[in-house]
Structure formats: C-alpha cells, structure tokens
C-alpha cells in the first residue's frame, strides 16, 4: 500500500504543479525544494509530525510558518499531501485542497488524503 500511496501522491503533485518536471532534494525530515535548472519552482512538504503530548499547542503551526517563509522568500508555491487531521491546520494557514487521493486498504476500507497547495 505504501508504494501505491507514494506513486499516487507523486502523480497528484505533478498535476497540481502544472506538470512541471522537478528534481527533489530531500532535506532533513520535512522540507524538499523542487528544482528545475537549478532554481526552485515549488516546495514540497514531505512530513510534519508532532508528538502527541505537544499536539494542539501550536507546534505544527510554528514548523509550517518556518517552512512557508522559506517558500515566500523563494517566491514559490508549497505543496503537500495531508491526513484529514493535518488538513485542518493546513486549511487554517491558507492551503487549498486540489485533489483527494483515495486508497483502498487490504480489508476494503477507503482512506482519503487531501492534496493541498498554498500559493505565495
């Protein structure tokens, strides 16, 4: 299921970013600048996690504000695939849902993951 999820999110990212080809340099744990001819064309948030005791205390918002400032400085949009819980935070800080990825689990459940983008 992980490979299916990663393939679907990559397709969704390309579609949301206008089909532009990009190379992804993974920077420690959360931030990935896409590059085309050496210049960022968008930013992709790979993973943001907040330990349960620190959730709902503004930690996730602070991390995202830092990443969004980097995107604003580069004048590029930011893309991410979210869980439903995470999507609530992302909506509050200006992300828009561009697509809903649906994946079926081995036991037949359908999981939904919002693909989201925030323009500068």
Overall shape: it is flat
CATH architectural group: 3-Layer(aba) Sandwich
> Could you tell me how far the N terminus lies from the C terminus, measured between alpha carbons in angstroms?
33 Å
Please outline the major beta sheet: 6 strands, mixed
Structure explained in plain terms:
The protein has a single domain (2-118), classed as Gcn5-related N-acetyltransferase (GNAT) (Aminopeptidase), CATH 3.40.630.30. The longest helix has 16 residues, at 59-74. The protein is flat and about 45 Å long. The protein has 120 residues and is α+β, with helices and mostly antiparallel strands. The protein has helices at residues 2-16, 59-74, 84-92; strands at residues 23-24, 31-36, 39-45, 78-81, 96-104, 110-118. Residues 21-32 have low confidence and may be disordered. 33% of the residues lie in helices and 31% in strands. A hairpin with a 2-residue loop joins strand 2 and strand 3. Strands 1-2-3-4-6-5 form a six-stranded mixed beta sheet, with helices on both faces. It has three helices and six strands, in the order αβββαβαββ.
């Amino acid at each position: 299921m992980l490979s299916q999820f990663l393939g679907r999110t990559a397709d969704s990212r390309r579609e949301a970013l206008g089909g532009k080809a990009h190379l992804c340099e993974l920077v420690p744990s959360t931030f990935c600048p896409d590059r085309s001819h050496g210049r960022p064309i968008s930013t992709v948030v790979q993973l943001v996690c907040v330990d349960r005791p620190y959730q709902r205390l503004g930690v996730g918002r602070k991390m995202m504000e830092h990443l969004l400032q980097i995107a604003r400085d580069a004048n590029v949009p930011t893309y991410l695939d979210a869980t439903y819980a995470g999507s609530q935070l992302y909506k509050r800080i200006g992300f828009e849902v561009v697509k809903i990825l649906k994946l079926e689990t081995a036991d037949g459940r359908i999981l939904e993951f919002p693909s989201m983008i925030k323009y500068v």
